[in-house]
Amino acid sequence: MSRLAGLAGEIYSWLMASDSSTSTQDSTTVVGADADVDVAVDVTVDVDVIVIGAGVCGIYQLYRLLEMDLSVTVLEAGDAPGGTWYWNRYPGARFDSESYTYGFSFSKELLDEWDWSEHFSPQPETLRYLNYVVDKFDLAQHMQFGWRVERATWDEGSRTWEVTREDGTSLTCRYLLTALGLLSVPALPNYDGMDSFTGQSFHTFHWPKDPVNLEGKRVAVIGTGATAVQLIPELAKSAGSLTVFQRRPNWCAPLHNGPISPDEMAEIRARYDEIFERCANTPGGFIHGPDPRSFHEVSPEERHAFWQELYEEGRGFGIWLANFREVLMDEECNAEFTEFIANKIRDRVDDPVVADKLIPKDHGFGIQRVPMETNYYEAYNRPNVHLVDLNETPIETITSKGVRTADTDSFQGTEHEFDIIVYATGFDAITGAFDKIDFIGVDGQKLRDKWVDSPITFMGALVNGFPNLITLAGPTAGSVSTNFPRGIEIAVDWASDLLTHMLNNGQTRVEASAEAERAWTDHVREMYGFLLLRKAKSWFTGYNANLDRPQKPRYMIYTGGNPRYRKKLNEAAAAGYEGVDLD
Ligand code: NA7
């Protein structure tokens, strides 16, 4: 018997002077605590908790729930665990935060056992890591694969969720926890003729599991975001020809990856506590935090020397997140640094016309997510790589043979012929995975309708009108780092503590109050006001022109910094879950 069934049974038998808690192998009985409320107190559910998603977040949440002795099922659309790292198999896919900041911190044994081989782990190694964790803690037996959730319906009478898959079969649970990932719904463009292309074509998220033969092939990449910036140098090495269709360039900076020697790994292992402590105290949750100096107290020469060092030697996001704070907050400071980076692009790209096309003109450095690169700019110096600027020659249609662009001097346009077209066109970020599922809450309200303009939550974890739904590291939670373990562990630990509190107090219904939710949403919007990223046309603000919705800013993440976020979560918990109605 699960702990929830057991505890609820005790309370029920005390209230009703009879023990009616029953549990079968396939179902568990949960019981409402409050006899005054008009609730069907004795309810049989399939499991206490359903977690949707077996990625980094789902894996850790499952581990925590099992520790609490609850019955749990993780439903996963893919046919194996790993989430982001299961799906994104394109060449060049890797972390751009340091590997040793990416691993789970909850098990000392795991930290002692696992060696990272590179500073920025490639996708196959990361997937191996996640499978190692699943095997080590024997978690796969609680996961069901090939289970794409179509609908989740709240039943007020029984205080349960019914979760339904595409084929109509369903499972019931008391608590529904979402671990859907920030970037798990790929967004394809809607060009005419996409289905008529006779070669191979796919979104980067769906890069085939079987090796793709690139030898001598004519390959197109559409898009130049963080994904394409990892992919393009790899394809350039092996494809016969590579044509990049660029709409808006991004500001990219060197990753400076390298192997981790056994000695270095031992040294990292000895410093894990310090590393995690550091990540806990930076705004982004990464190892890099802003330079303590003010931009203005440092002379222009010193600034440039500092930037030069960051560019030449700084690993990963250092150049973005360990820079002066003002670079991301003040237009003038941002402009000075942006020009520094523009000159680096000019230095690295041989053809000045191509270099100019690769320099963004509509936003400054770091306002959008900075793609980290290894030989990205040098790829354009290769004779087999061509850049097509879609501002000059937009894509008109996809044909059976390739891509037709509209050329101003030719009525026919130009047909570029390809064997493979890769769509690196981004995602319906953050809320997309929620929109794909029909979440039906109190009085039939749909989550999709509630969030039509922008997500509305209480600390990214709870939603008024959707009781017993916990959106782990959900929209408006933490920061962009909520999609990696430092942020995920905060979210999962908070949710686990909340459920423990409820179990200890015999409560079976949790819902954010409307007032607390409003206050959090206002706070999220206020925080966007401090950063230039509010102006970005990027997934931070819900922008993706491929999506059939108004292209206006959405408040997707909490930009007040991870320490502040964690403090607010902790304060709410310490005050007996202030802002949360428990019953
Ligand atoms: P992004 O960062 O959203 O980038 C998508 C790219 O695709 C971007 O350059 C878009 O140009 C381009 N795009 C989108 N639609 C089109 C069409 N129709 N035609 C041409 N170009 C298009 O997604 P990524 O996958 O690169 O990265 C997402 C995150 O994944 C990343 O931040 C990492 O954290 C992991 P636009 O800027 O819209 O002009």
Précis, in short:
With 583 residues, the chain is an alpha/beta fold.
Notable characteristics:
583 residues; 8-stranded mixed beta sheet; alpha/beta; FAD/NAD(P)-binding domain; binds ligand NA7; single chain; 5-stranded parallel beta sheet; 19 helices
Q: What do these coordinates show?
A:
The chain has 583 residues and is α/β, with parallel strands linked by helices. The protein starts with a helix and ends with a strand. It has 19 helices and 22 strands. The strands form six sheets. Strands 3, 4, 5, 6, 7, 8, 19 and 20 form an eight-stranded mixed sheet that branches. It has a five-stranded parallel sheet with strand order 9-18-10-11-14, with helices on one face. The protein folds into three domains: 42 residues, no CATH class; 239 residues, FAD/NAD(P)-binding domain (3-Layer(bba) Sandwich); 210 residues, FAD/NAD(P)-binding domain (3-Layer(bba) Sandwich), CATH 3.50.50.60. α2 packs parallel to α17. Ligand NA7 binds next to α7.
Report the bound ligands by name, code or SMILES.
Answer: ligand NA7
Structural class: alpha/beta
Query: What integer is the average pLDDT?
Result: 91
CATH class of the largest domain: Alpha Beta
In the CATH hierarchy, the third-tier topology of the largest domain is known as FAD/NAD(P)-binding domain
- As residue ranges, the low-confidence spans are 5-26, 31-40
Q: How big is the Rg?
A: 25 Å
Shape annotation: globular
Total of helices: 19
Distance linking N and C termini? 23 Å
Helix content: 25-40%
CATH superfamily of the largest domain: FAD/NAD(P)-binding domain
Largest sheet: 8 strands, mixed
CATH arch. level architecture of the largest domain: 3-Layer(bba) Sandwich
Strand content: 15-25%
Total strand count, please? Answer: 22
How many domain units?
Answer: 3
